[in-house]
Amino acid sequence: MKYDENLDFLTLFERYYLGDMAPEERTGFEARLQSDPDFAAAYASELLVFKSIEMAGQADFLAKMKTIHQEQVPVKKTARIRRLPSAISWAMAAVIAALLAFGLWWSLRPPSPEALYAQFYSIPEFDTNRSGFVPSGQLDQAAGFYKVKDFQAAANVLSDYLTSNEGTAKDSLYLSICWLETGKAAQARDLLQTLSSNASLADQAAWYLALSYLKEGNTAQSSYWLKQISEGTLPATPILKAKASEILKKLG
Fold first, then answer.
1. Non-local CB neighbours of 167 within 8 Å, separated by 6+ positions
2. What is the pTM (predicted TM-score) of this model?
């Protein structure tokens, strides 16, 4: 009997092992285990494979097999079976265990700095409300460009606006974001470091400094600014403290 002729029986064994049989079918299966030595020996051999998979810490794999079997046509119960050589069964188990172990390692590996940047980076909403004065048309224009992600145009307007001494620290933050978005990281960081001394914006400035370094894979500088937030060196909101702590934990 060829190897592929045993596949229906392998499916049958898996269904029994997973408890995916109706009571009548299970009774018939167990009766055959008692009356058919070859059938019983083949099941015992495959049982070792199932156990080795569980020992690999992948019980969820068996649950997935159960879902697959529920969609399959029931196998015939009258055919004879020739037991697979134990070497083949063990080889199958070893390959499956190795693949599952690799998958487990891959899922548990530390995320890369670039992946963390992609997970945590988002631009702040442009708020044109300013206490103490009515925003000018320039600010509204910059906000319009910013909202449609035309960051170069927004940066040009904001630069002129700030040069005229009408802008606030918040406008400088938006300008730094525009520079980050247009690839001018060095300029953005210079401005963000200045803003990190502003009590009302210190945590946001440090946050975007940390993320800018994270994007470039500079985990040392990124961690420095994240710790400024998480350890309370700079005044920070609970939300940013929690996010900074989470990234530091993932960076190890």
1. 139, 158, 161
2. 0.58
Please calculate the CA angle 70-76-82 and round it to the nearest 5 degrees.
110
| Per-residue DSSP letter, 5 | G
The pLDDT assigned to 125 comes to 93
Of 108, 135, 161, the residue that ends a domain is 108
For residues 99 and 135, membership in a common domain is answered with no
* 130-176 pLDDT per residue, tens: 765 555 788 899 999 999 999 999 999 999 999 887 778 999 999 99
List the CATH number of the domain containing 238. Answer: 1.25.40.10
- Three-class SS state of 153: helix
* Separation between Cα atoms, residue 98 and residue 109, nearest integer Å: 16
Place of tokens 């265990």: 97
Q: What is the pLDDT of residue 73?
A: 45
Comparing CA positions, the residue from 144, 4, 148, 109 lying closest to residue 158 is 144
